[in-house]
Design brief:
204 residues; alpha+beta; tt1808, chain A; six-stranded mixed β-sheet; globular
Length: 204
Amino acid sequence: MSAAHKLAQLHYLTEDEYLAREIEALEKTEYIAGVLHPRWQMMAGGRIRHNALSVNVSAALRNKLGGSKCRTLSSDTRLYNPQTSAYLYPDVVVVCGKPDVRKHHSLVNPTLVVEITSPSSEEYDRTTKLLIYSAMPSVQEYMIVRQEAREIMLFRRNEHDKLDFVEIATEQVELRSVGCTLEVDEIYDDTDFDDVEDNTNDDE
């Protein structure tokens, strides 16, 4: 599909129109400055592996952060960045301290954001989302977990108040923002399987 064709399919809405639509929507949709971005379209294919990785990250963080002031939240958590008029649904969110919730239960002060990236969403996660999260002062670290390789990319807020690339981790990833270290093995544990969707029975 050409870029022009993709652009023609974009829908422009106000924030209030988007939020009203999202209340009734069956599938989550991300919103950036008036443009809708369907999440499932961006991560087409690999959904089972994607979900397994997301569960592993959530479980690892919950285990490490139990008893602390930081809470691990699921992909149902909608983030709101007022500076960029963006509403996003990361795969995992950690918020430390009291959650600041606005705009129909949208969180504005996440501490750590995690995306499970696929070939179809990798560019979006590494560019557009990186800029949006960097513009949210509360976000201290941004972690991208790759589906197609056993690699985790970490960005951390620097002295210039921007999220800066730190490393591609293959063994451990140190999350200073929440005070814990995750093993890459535990994140990718039991996620090696072929995710081939069978659409023959979709109508049953």
